[in-house]
């Protein structure tokens, strides 16, 4: 018996029980669609996180006061005052692997313009901050070195602050707003960056000279953070080692003393976020993959029923010359047709479901070709694997016993 006839017999057998065949396919369809959709959501989230971190500057380094917290123990307040302007100056003058650097201090409060007000954060930074965070001034100018030296009450503001304080659409440059009770003259407006992957509004920000925030708002002599960027992404670890040596020497720490500062890089954050995203993607794919196994068991169950129902037919075919391998091939072909057809429908449904998730829920998604090929390949293997045993049973039937079967 040739394979063309085997395919005709298999298609006829499946078409005689269309609804049962569809229900058998359903497990495979749901499994394939689930795997594709879950992997697309996981990969989309990963790519979105990587893009957001890249926009923040993949070579960015953050220096915070105090050592690493152990076991969630709260540190002494004095440990949070270990970064000084002298440390910033030392890094500026001695570090060779650092491209840009800025002190950072901040204070949350209310910004007021006439009858309009909005909560935001006043960030005291240096001129290098825009380069480090890849920010651009859309209108007006950045404050100057002279403004920093004189602790001038000037600021540049983000788009969200502009929309809340100037809802009439007027140009905010040159206008005066109050932060709590302190007047600040707006010298520039930042170009919009939108929301990041953590849902944080990057445009709800106000930047001012760090000296102004330290003296006029916080009344402190220490820094809350120093941010800088390495000359290249590959030099990030070298820059961290260089900064560590400078700060340890500046803080007069002996060999064996713990650091009283903490240095983190965007690479560490990116690696941590990516590994978490990868783990969640694998978890989602494993959960969705269970549907494929359930679909395979459904194929085995239906093939068993089909063998039982067609025992007499099998006996008749074998009695007129059909060999055991012909019967085996016939039932395997039926199982493979079910799994492949279900796989094709599942792929289409998975792509549609992924697009709907993106449109309706606005989640970032990305369909990788290998995920489609993998899920389709797995469903085909599943069909062969779970269809083989019932087909093997059918091929090993005794023709006489099969014909007598009631």
| Gyration radius over CA | 33 Å
How would you sum up the major sheet? 6 strands, mixed, barrel
Tell me the distance between the termini: 27 Å
Count every helix, treating DSSP H or I runs of 4 or more residues as helices: 13
H/E order of the elements?
Answer: HHEHEEHEHEHEEEHEHEHHHHH
The residue ranges in which pLDDT falls below 50 over 5 or more consecutive positions are 70-74
Helix percent reads 55-70%
Task: Tell me, briefly, the overall form.
Answer: elongated
Strand order of the largest sheet: 2-3-8-5-7-6
Number of strands: 10
Average pLDDT, rounded to a whole number, is: 82
Structural class determined from secondary elements: alpha+beta
How many structural domains?
2
Q: Which strand-content bin applies to the residues? A: 15-25%
Please characterize this protein's 3D structure.
There is one protein chain. The chain has 406 residues and is α+β, with helices and mostly antiparallel strands. The chain has 2 domains: 3-52 and 276-404, no CATH class; 83-259, no CATH class. It is built from 13 helices and 10 strands. Strands 2-3-8-5-7-6 form a 6-stranded mixed β-barrel. α1 (3-15) packs across α11 (324-360). The longest helix has 44 residues, at 266-309. It starts with a helix and ends with a helix.
